[in-house]
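I am still getting used to backbone structure tokens and would like to learn alongside you. To get us started, please write out a protein record for me. Start from the sequence, derive the backbone structure tokens from it, and show both lines together. Once you have written the record down, we can walk along the chain together:
***
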Amino acid sequence: MLLRWVLTRDIEAVLSMLDDYGGWLLGCGTVAQPIQPESWDDVLRAYTIDEELRKEEQAATAVVKAELFVIPARREIYSALRRGEIDAWARPNGSGDIVKIAPIQWAGLRFRSLKGHDIAVPVGSKGEPLSLPRPPADYLFGSVPATSTPTMWSDPLFPAEQALKLWQLRDDETSATESGGAANDQSFPALPERPAEEAHPVSGIRTKKTKRRKVTKIGAIKAFIVNKYPSGIPAGVSDKIIAREFAADTKTTVSERTVRRAREDGD
């Protein structure tokens, strides 16, 4: 929910996600199965991929959206968590009582999705997931003691009032801009070539002058990695493989060194 709020500032869209939590889908007869709520990965895909576009246009649009909006949104969330501006509460290793995650821990935690759950996994200095003594699925439902390290945090919770304070409602931002006041400095820039006087669907801000923002090659690779591997780059996927996949999707050749720089500059 936090990522969707930061990206859209659409309170109705965020609240609609609540309907899936604890819900069950009824099938034929008496067959029923639990509804899987939208995860961090689901929100990323829904935001960046426009199903109404052709496949080649989808890829290009996804790269631009990821570079201009998704990557900055993720960085803002991690930064706010590290500074303690927004609290995170979860069960350590999916066990025991819900406790507050210390802000300093977010220097080595990253969000991943697993079986419909959002988890904060421990990572190394380059963002690679640390080795765990048990399979990741065991950390979801209390199979691993809360004291086992490294710690994985299952389904973190965030106070809504803190999120509203950090990333304000679209109506507040629109009023500030139209009245000549300063817009929220954490709102994201509009997509390139958006017509003048049109309210942007993410920030809701009406702009009188549109600026073109250049997407660098490293930025494009970072956006490609976010969309290709939203839960993190799997072990065994080398810079060479990513360069080849990037070239196949975008028709743009990049070196392994450029891919490595993009990975090191990421989250």
Remarks:
- The chain has nine helices and seven strands.
- The first helix runs from residue 2 to 8.
- Residues 172-214 have pLDDT under 50 and may be disordered.
